[in-house]
Design a protein that fits this description.
Blueprint (H helix, E strand, L loop, with lengths): L1 H10 L9 H6 L1 H13 L6 H10 L5 E9 L4 H9 L2 H7 L4 E14 L3 E13 L3
Antiparallel strand pairs: 1-3, 2-3
């Protein structure tokens, strides 16, 4: 549902959307680190994630990502909240050579039906001069 929402939002601006499943896979360790930090209060190094991104993103390309945490599972509401951030809306409206998007969601279940839902919307691209 979130990938469809990203695609639909970009289509409103006559922008195409291409997905990169390898990039999406790389986002999972970052989401895990964010939840660990949020739940324990202990700052967790994201060095492995940063190294993986540096290795996976082609030379001359830029990586941008927007993580967000929710306590519900309503994809439309999540996406709407994300678009309120200039960082996320800038990612959604990007133009660039070789622009590819990734979306990753990770759920954490807690007692009493509490859920922490982490979402990251990311992309890699080469700047258009």
């Amino acid at each position: 549902a979130l990938k469809r929402l990203v695609r639909d939002e970009r289509e409103r601006f006559d922008l195409s959307t291409h997905w990169n499943s390898d990039l999406a896979h790389l986002l999972l360790p970052a989401l895990s680190a964010y939840e660990l930090e949020r739940s324990t209060g202990v700052c967790v190094s994201n060095e492995d994630f940063e190294n993986a991104v540096r290795h996976a993103v082609p030379s001359g390309f830029t990586f941008k990502g927007y993580p967000s945490q929710f306590i519900h599972l309503d994809a439309r509401s999540m996406f709407s909240d994300c678009l309120k951030s200039s960082v996320c809306s800038d990612i959604i409206c990007l133009r660039g050579d070789g622009l590819e998007f990734a979306v990753k969601v990770k759920l954490y279940a807690y007692p009493e039906s509490v859920v922490a839902c982490w979402l990251m919307i990311a992309c890699q691209y080469r700047c258009i001069s």
